[in-house]
């Protein structure tokens, strides 16, 4: 059992995967595998259309529900968008700035920052994703890239709001590639993120903020990544679609 300073949070980002039937099968299996109460906050982040129907079964199984994205605006003529306020009755967390949205869908730091505020003003907790590209790591810019993303995403966020937020360090080269960061690299960046939050807010705040690692987390590597002193949980993609593996990852955070 890990001696944690902060409540661990393990979230499964299903991305654009699952039919409704598959989604409910995952929840049922997780309900069998996991106790209804846990010291780990467990979050399921399905595609938008499944959120409402999965919500009750997930809650009964002790899982919170989250969303993968939201609109920058609260309402209006924004065809195809879903606002944080619409998600708030069902979602405890909303992912903001996932690298797939930054790099495949062109979301800029400015858009990410606006969305962080949209999530917070609607009373939901953001999971704010940051992380460098492979070429940025190889050219020694990983920390400066992450620092810029943090400065932008956390602009105007209050001490109370950052305490409820989660920061996910997801090196882009590790996402969906089967190549996770080494525990040393993950710890070094998580500690850097914590110190950056300390600079932007204060030490007490940085001690409280939860930092997840994400990128090819699986049942085999979760133990070494989730026992790192500055890593308070995981944002899991592919392995969260396999309930037995996801359950083992959650157990690694106990
Ligand atoms: P992965 O995805 O676990 O499939 O690498 C992680 C993520 O995108 O959050």
Shape call: globular
Class by SSE composition: alpha/beta
Which regions have little confidence, pLDDT < 50, spanning 5+ residues?
none
Distance between the termini: 6 Å
According to DSSP, the number of beta strands is 8
Count of individual helical segments: 12
**H/E series:** EHEHEHEHHEHHHEHHEHEH
Strands of the biggest beta sheet: in what spatial order? 1-2-3-4-5-6-7-8
Portion in strands: 5-15%
Mind summarizing the main beta sheet? 8 strands, parallel, barrel
- What Rg is obtained from the alpha carbons, in whole angstroms? 17 Å
Helical content (DSSP H or I, runs of 4+): 40-55%
Q: How would you state the average pLDDT, rounded?
A: 97
Enumerate the distinct ligands: 2-phosphoglycolic acid
Structure summary:
The protein is α/β, with parallel strands linked by helices. It has 12 helices and 8 strands. The structure holds 2-phosphoglycolic acid.
């Amino acid at each position: 059992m890990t001696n944690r300073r902060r409540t661990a949070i393990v979230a499964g980002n299903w991305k654009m995967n699952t039919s409704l039937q598959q989604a409910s099968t995952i929840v049922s299996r997780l309900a069998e595998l996991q106790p209804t109460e846990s010291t780990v906050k467990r979050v399921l982040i399905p595609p938008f259309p499944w959120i409402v129907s999965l919500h009750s079964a997930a809650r009964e199984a002790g899982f919170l529900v989250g969303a993968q994205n939201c609109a920058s605006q609260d309402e209006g003529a924004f065809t195809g968008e879903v606002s944080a306020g619409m998600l708030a009755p069902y979602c405890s967390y909303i992912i903001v700035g996932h690298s797939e949205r930054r790099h495949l869908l062109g979301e800029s730091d400015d858009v990410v920052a606006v969305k962080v505020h949209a999530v917070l003003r609607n009373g939901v907790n953001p999971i704010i994703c940051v992380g460098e590209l492979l070429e940025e790591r190889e050219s020694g810019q990983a920390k400066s890239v992450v620092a810029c993303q943090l400065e932008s995403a956390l602009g105007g966020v209050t001490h109370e709001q950052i305490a409820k937020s989660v920061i996910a360090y997801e090196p882009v080269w590790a996402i969906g590639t089967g190549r996770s960061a080494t525990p040393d690299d993950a710890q070094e960046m998580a500690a850097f993120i914590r110190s950056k939050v300390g600079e932007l807010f204060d030490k007490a705040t940085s001690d409280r903020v939860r930092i997840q690692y994400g990128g090819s987390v699986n049942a085999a590597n979760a133990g070494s990544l989730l026992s790192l002193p500055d890593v308070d949980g995981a944002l899991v993609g592919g392995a969260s679609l396999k309930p037995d593996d996801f359950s083992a990852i959650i157990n690694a955070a106990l």
